[in-house]
Amino acid sequence: MGAAPYYALDTHRVKDGTDTGGKLSLLLTMSAAYNFTKHWYVRASWNRVMTGYDKDSDIYLGGIGYRF
Q1: Which of 45, 49, 53, 66 could be a cystine partner for 57, CB 3.0 to 4.6 Å?
Q2: Are 61 and 33 in contact (CB under 8 A)?
Q3: pLDDT tens for residues 31-60?
Q4: Residue 23: exposed, middle, or buried by beta-carbon count in 10 A (0-12, 13-18, 19+)?
């Protein structure tokens, strides 16, 4: 698990042309891995970008890996 500040370089504009809020958000991450063998494993991660407005984002990542 981890948390860190996230600074957005681009912001979403609403119809009246104003900014949606601050560019600084919070990034939360949770990750887990399972070893099938000594070298092969699978990993899943969940990331959430928490903003100060209603545009929070969830990002799900998964994959297999090989340790040398």
Answers
A1: 49
A2: no
A3: 999 999 999 999 999 999 888 777 788 999
A4: middle
